[in-house]
Write a structure and sequence with these properties.
- With about 240 residues, the chain is mainly β.
- Helix content is about 0%, strand content about 35%.
- The chain contains one helix and 16 strands.
- The strands form five sheets. Strands 9-10-11-12 form a four-stranded antiparallel sheet. A four-stranded antiparallel sheet has the order 13-14-15-16, with no helix packed on it.
- Strand 1 (about 10) and strand 2 form a beta hairpin.
- The longest helix is centred in the middle third of the chain and has 5 residues, at about 155-160.
Length: about 240
């Protein structure tokens, strides 16, 4: 669990008790972390991701300040990983491949990707017309196919007007083939921010996009064509999850 101010806690008994990972306080660069969005400008842990293949590897994304890595279950942490985003919004490992990690955020290109478990990162920009990233997700069968939702700016993403957002697809090693803006029935631009992107671990090619208005769009062909689902969740401002069965 990540908190504001920026601390990390762990439970080893299904959430009954929690203990702070004290090593997180010893990251040297944390004195420079801050959140520009609201007073008292304290940075916070916005993203936590655990490797699906190595239980010792944990990544934490700070809003705003760094993306850091632990290789020993949170006992010790690196400083900011070069090439990752300093303003993290979403951080996720691939569902089964612990080499691949994806990040959306409000700094740099707005997206970043690692193919070595978070050790090194790239920010692929080719084909992106937007650079304020939020949600990201990857195809369960092919970690090189991943998606990101981006807006033109933070003000447009979170404001009361049109988000002027878009959903993009990348394919290949990080940064190899660039980005493609997805259409196929999606509004252009998307007026409400896609805060959530969700792939189905059991069905490759499927992707759900949850908008701030509560609308959900679905594609079954890696984003080539889209259909708006006949339901509304009133509002979506963080994420969607899928339960087994």
């Amino acid at each position: 669990a990540g908190t504001k101010p920026a601390l990390v806690f762990v439970s080893r008994d299904a959430g009954a008790t929690w203990a702070e990972l004290a090593g997180f306080r010893r990251i040297a660069s944390r004195r420079f972390w801050f959140s520009p969005a609201e007073r008292p400008y304290r940075a916070y842990v916005q993203g936590l991701a655990c490797s699906p293949t190595d239980p010792g590897v944990v990544l934490a994304g700070i809003e705003f300040g760094a993306t850091v890595r632990s290789a020993d279950g949170g006992a010790t942490w690196t400083g900011h990983r070069r090439g990752a985003l300093r303003g993290c919004h979403t951080l996720a490992f691939h569902a089964t491949d612990g080499a691949w990690v994806y990040e959306g955020g409000g700094s740099g290109a707005g997206v970043a990707c690692s193919a070595d478990g978070g050790l090194t990162w790239r920010q692929p920009r080719a084909g992106l017309d937007h650079h304020y990233g939020w949600a990201c997700a990857a195809d369960p069968a092919d970690p090189a196919i991943w998606y990101a939702a981006l807006a033109a700016s933070a003000f447009k993403a979170h404001g009361s007007g049109s988000a002027q957002a878009a959903i993009y697809r990348a394919h290949g090693a990080p940064g190899a083939d660039g980005w493609e803006q997805l259409a196929g029935g999606l509004p252009d631009p998307i007026p409400a921010m896609p805060y959530a992107l969700l792939t189905d671990p059991a069905v490759p090619g499927h992707l759900y996009a949850g908008l701030s208005t509560g609308d959900i769009w679905h594609t079954a062909d890696h984003g080539d064509t889209w259909t708006q689902l006949p339901l509304n969740l009133t509002a979506i401002h963080r994420t969607l999850i899928m339960l087994p069965g």
